[in-house]
Amino acid sequence: MKIEEHISLKPLTTFGIGGKARYFSRAGSVAELEEAVVFAKKEKVPIFILGGGSNVLISDEGFAGLVIKMDILGIEFVPKKSGVVEVVAGAGEEWDYLVGLAVEKGLHGIENLSHIPGSVGAAPVQNIGAYGVEVKGTISFVEVFDIESGETRVLKNKGCQFSYRDSIFKGEKGKQLIVTKVGFELKSNGKVNISYRDLEAYFSKKKVDAPTLAEVRQAVVEIRCAKLPDWRVIGTAGSFFKNPIVTKRSFVALRKLYPELLSYPWSKGAVKLSLAWILDNVCNAKGFHVGKATVYKNQALVLVNEGGASAEEVKELASKLQALVKEKTGIMIEPEVQWVE
Ligand SMILES: Cc1cc2nc3c(=O)[nH]c(=O)nc-3n(C[C@H](O)[C@H](O)[C@H](O)COP(=O)(O)OP(=O)(O)OC[C@H]3O[C@@H](n4cnc5c(N)ncnc54)[C@H](O)[C@@H]3O)c2cc1C
Questions:
Q1: Domain 75-187 class, CATH top level
Q2: 258: Cα separation from own chain's centroid
Q3: What is the value of pTM for the model shown?
Q4: What's the CATH fold of domain 4-70?
Q5: Which end of the chain, N or C, is surrounded by fewer C-beta atoms within 10 Å?
Q6: Tell me: domain 235-340, CATH 3.30.565.10, correct?
Q7: Is 250 known to be catalytic?
């Protein structure tokens, strides 16, 4: 295991923003991860785990501890009971590569999560979701390395405490847990889920009633490409904020003010609002900017780095949007992107 010093984090994030890591190391195995953790403990510096860098905003000053880049690889397909295959993937594998492989093998469950950037290890942390599916629905287990005890253990799905863009790994109890491996239960005899508005519209326009798994993946990729910036070309971390979840009563009150308000069914008594719709139609936010940090022209929930934006500029733009949404709707919106300093 090699420890490097003063490594720029900017190129390791999709935002293309951020200062340097005081120490930097790549962990290609649990043994290397353990060595890196021992080093950080000896130096008494904090640890930050970096996957694909697609959900972080790193401060302009960088990180004054050890950044460990998760590079643990490996994908296995383990047949279980009839019609179910457990797919076990190293935390450093690229998420969309895994989705592509699963679809190629005819395995259902994660195809709606196609084209989300980032690593397998970050998927349970954020409980990634898109097009009516959350990854928590397929995760069978998460293997973790515990920074405090120095031991590796396994959490079953329930133990991960998944909720909307949240899990145990983001809270106080799970912050010392580093994801090393994830197991997914996928179905060879499953059904595609195209109930989400955009997917339904896509297939009804094409007059396809029963799309295949590969067609659903293709549809998701096409819809996303039309809406979201290509993170390899334009700096971004995707949706900067979470969609607000409000009580039915608040929803009814807001609908009186904004009759067209776009929403999605959530749970009994709660409704998920489209923040993109609010930012676009209520706040007129498309094109707002602070320096080189801008609200993306095709999707108001997405903030982009137009070239040379600083983390401070993005933070200021985000605060302005938060204040505007609060003023117009009374809702305090929460960032989805992780702030690292
Ligand atoms: C264009 C674009 C579109 C996006 N669309 C979506 C979408 O539709 N749905 C969605 O949910 N997200 C979306 N995202 C956000 C992002 O892709 C996901 O959150 C992704 O899972 C982040 O993975 P990452 O490896 O890049 O994580 P990073 O950005 O590297 O890290 C994110 C957080 O996870 C922690 N972490 C990373 N790996 C580990 C690990 N192995 N163990 C413990 N903690 C870890 C980090 O410490 C950090 O706190 C999008 C982002 C972009 C840029």
A1: alpha beta
A2: 29
A3: 0.97
A4: 3.30.43
A5: C
A6: no
A7: no
